Amino acid sequence: MDLCFMTGSLSMDTDTSKREALNNRCVIQPPFKLRTEEPILFLKPPSAYVREGSPVLVPRYSSSLHHEVELGVVIGKGGTAIPQAAAMEHVAGYALCLDMTARDVQDVCKAKGLPWTRAKAFNTSCPVSDFIPKERIPDPGNVKLWLKVNDQLRQSGCTSQMIFSIPYLISYISEFITLEEGDLILTGTPKGVSAVQERDELQAGIEDVVTMSFRVDRKE
Ligand SMILES: O=C([O-])CC(=O)C(=O)O
Ligand SMILES: [Mg+2]
Fold first, then answer.
1. From ligand 1's centre to the CA of 10, what distance in Å?
2. What separation in Å is there between the alpha carbon of 40 and the centre of ligand 1?
3. Lower CB density within 10 Å: C or N end of the chain?
4. How many whole angstroms separate alpha carbon 128 and alpha carbon 153?
5. Mean pLDDT in residue range 143-167
6. What is the ipTM of this complex?
């Protein structure tokens, strides 16, 4: 996994008012009008990846770093304009991911109609687990994800709550971005996102498949 990746944002957010607010914001971006049911996408660079053993760093410019636990889909076979029916043939496996988000910065970006890059794509903004082969998650549309901060449960949800299915996301994205082997698609977070502080311990898992932990540190 060493290429860029994307998030089908809000895919699992059950908070309708938040979804509507974001969709409205996006409608104002010329020249396209987004259909309300279209996923909001953003990119993170490979330098956003962080693996267990290294800390998640709070950017200097943020005082509200939020965790978002998400199922990541790892592309095994690239393609353009992949039909939904063939989408799962392009999946090599999965990874548990955190879409770390500088929420205060994202709020400013939203208010000004600016891209979310500084809020979502900074160094260490994507903690990832080990690669999970496809066979270990036979039904990715129905697995439970959880996240604890200092042993307290903050997020718990099931991928069955996703607004957009994995085949839909693969097909939708590949219409305008050619997917390549190693790309990782984050699929959106369940409710319960909250702020983390320096020295917090984050622990997250997918059912009985994988767990991972990360310590939060502040960039000096
Ligand atoms: O940060 C956001 O507003 C959207 C997002 O990534 C998610 O729902 O997973
Ligand atoms: Mg997210």
1. 5
2. 9
3. C
4. 19
5. 95
6. 0.98
